[in-house]
Amino acid sequence: MSTHDVNGRRVVEKDGRKLGVTVHRVGTRFSCRVDNVDPGDVIGRGSGATVEEAEQAALANALMMLSLSQATHQLRQSMKNLGKDFPSKG
Amino acid sequence: MGTYAAPQMLVETDWVDAHRADRMVRLVEVDVDTYSYDEGHVPGAVGWNWSSQLCDTHQRDILSREQFEKLMSSAGITPETTVVLYGDNNNWFAAWALWQMKIYGHRDVRLMNGGRGKWLAEGRELTLEQPRYDVTQYTAREPDLSLRALLPQVRAEVEAQKTYLVDVRSGPEFTGELLAPPGLPETCQRGGHIPGAASVPWGKTCNPDGTFKSYDDLKALYEGVGVKGDRPVTAYCRIGERSSHTWFVLKYLLGYPDVRNYDGSWTEWGNLVRATIAK
């Protein structure tokens, strides 16, 4: 067996969002995946020589994904509000 | 204390450990995280990628009969094989695979209760080795479309109000506050839910260790929002996978006689012209 669960899945809070963090050892390296808790989609992955490195990389990816989706949401809201003042066709 | 309607649809991790070398049993891992299998899986298990192997990649659809037969054959599965599916996140995508296997009439397909998470938590063996099985010539049955709801049927159900609709997405998706789960692209024009739907997020059916809740707890969960077995039930989510998990619970654990999965789900309904939504 060359792979195992390092410390199970734990839930952390970053920028007001809950994230599930799971780390595995794969051979001599560590692999981390971060999910969005509900429903549990994996939104960040990372690997490294230590648990910390792997977690840091995965969390950075996940936070980027969250920022992008939040920005899209805000852009849609802004466009909607603008549309109230300037209704468009098409 | 009630018992599951079809307890044979579930196997425990002990059973899997004892039968994993059985040539009439095929283990298949299907994860949300498509990289998980490559990082270690139950010895003997093959891995299916939900995003490329469990859908038609040319049109939005489940596998065609030919594609399904090819997938089964390549995994060395025959119609007589006992297939045990398992995966991460409470067997979410394993249930999606099971739903398709039932549509194409595979007789004996089950879920490993608790999925990959429970196997890992129990410290059981994992391997990186990919098994090889002799390719078979699998012949599927005609698709059983009584397990699937397509848009015209759902529209008719909404109008007739004789079917229970169960929305299994999160609360904020149900109310329209969110158009997609955090970190995922928004794939619909509007937020909300199908009129008349009850909200029962799919994850409420599982214990913290990923196993299914007891019959009594599940019965109380659905009956608590008025969803019973006296009428047909249609479950939906965003793209149809979470709702396949709920479909499994309602059909095999609670034994409701007529349960369908609406795989078009909110990405279809929420973009539809002339479809009423509720918030």
Please explain how this structure is put together:
The complex is a heterodimer of chains A (90) and B (279). Chain A has 90 residues and is of the alpha+beta class. Chain A is 39% helix and 40% strand. Chain A has 1 helix and 4 strands. Chain A has one helix at residues 51-85; strands at 3-14, 17-26, 29-35, 42-48. Chain A has a 4-stranded antiparallel beta sheet with strand order 1-2-3-4, with helices on one face. Chain A is elongated. Chain B has 279 residues and is α/β, with parallel strands linked by helices. Chain B is built from 10 helices and 9 strands. A 5-stranded parallel beta sheet of chain B has the order 1-5-4-2-3. In chain B, strands 7-6-8-9 form a 4-stranded parallel beta sheet, sandwiched between helices. The A-B interface holds A 1-5, 8-9, 17, 24, 26, 31, 33, 35-36, 38-45, 62, 65-66, 68-69, 72-73, 76 and B 32-33, 35-36, 39-40, 88-90, 92, 117, 120-121, 123, 125-128, 169-170, 178-186, 201-203, 242.
